[in-house]
Amino acid sequence: MQSPLQAAINQLCAEKNLERDIVTQAIENAIALAYKKDFGTPRQQITVRLGDDISEMRIFEEREVVKKVEDYEIEITEKEALKIRPDIKIGDNVFVPVPPHEDFGRIAAQTAKHVISQKLHEAERSMLFNKFKDREGQLLSARVQKVDHDSVLLEIDGVTTMLHHRQQIPGEKYFTGQRIKVYLQEVELTSKGPQLRITRTSDAFIEALFEAEIPEMREGLVYIAKMARESGVRCKIAVASEDTSIDPVGAFVGQRGSRINTVMEEVGDERLDVIQFYEDEKKLLLAALSPAKVSKVEFFKGTSGENRVKIFVREEERAITIGRKGQNVRLAGEMVGKQIDVITYDGPMEEEAEDKAPEKKVEREISEKVSIDHLEGVDAEVVATLTEMGLSQIKQFIGLKAEELAEIGITLDQAKTVIKAVEKYTKR
Length: 428
Known about the structure:
elongated, GMP Synthetase, Chain A, domain 3, N Utilization Substance Protein A, Chain:P, domain 4, CATH 2.40.50.140, about 35% helix, alpha+beta, 4-stranded mixed β-sheet, 5-stranded antiparallel β-sheet
């Protein structure tokens, strides 16, 4: 039958996948230190050997065999050593049994208990660290435990960690019990246990969300070539494929928008623009500025030698080109790595027939001079707002989506009303 000590050691080793020798050695070393502290001297070399129980424990004092003893704490004569081990010779080390003290059994038991508890704690921390270390760079599912004014306490597979304010998507609201996705950047093993460095604001978070939804991305058939993101506001994603038979934009959007809608549900109000990636900077810039229609593009060097680009747009396209608070043009600039200057332009548009995508034919030709005052069901205040921003003609709204129109200063519901009225007018 096992003693309580051996049962505790065996259980610890089995549950935490620890080597028995490691635990036993840790207990023996701790008991040896306890003995030196309470009953020995600092220079003594104490060794402990556990038996099946604390009562069977043996304590030894390690000494060097010499001809003449000069230091009685660490040396022993050959004559005395031969009584312990008949084959001993000068220069060897011998283990001299130490008579146990009456109170040391209780001290040894307490020390063993403390070491087992400590090893258990270390094993749990090590196990959790190893569990998450292999998941760095992956998407994790988390449950909200507590919400503070600037941080959120999350539980992830048994580990409690903090989602700090700077790693939260701006404007997001959290509540206890909510399930969210987070991106694991790094795992650190600290004195307080494994610490998970998580985020929802990095570009890698968006990429991981898409990867979870797109089998072609996991297989390496499509990929994100470039990304420009303002967390919580807007994200432009340029996608590509090495296989010419695959439409990368279609793969990311999914049938009827199923894939991109799933990702957008996770990021809340943040808008995601998926565009085709082009090696040609000009083509990439024009795609990133969509739905704005650019008349002309000029790349140049700034006064400090930095790379810049001028884009020339008609007055009626200026508001859409810049976007709300400049986000559209700013992110497009990040996509090509250049500062963009928007210039109002009344000259002819550049004609590049081979680059122009065929436009959808509307059911009715709309004159350039038809004002949005002719739209039915659109509030006069909305008409005034759009007119003030240079969007005063019905033709300017053809091909726009409500989400794109909502970026320039009106609500999404108002934008939907405008687009619906435009479609109704063109079908007359």
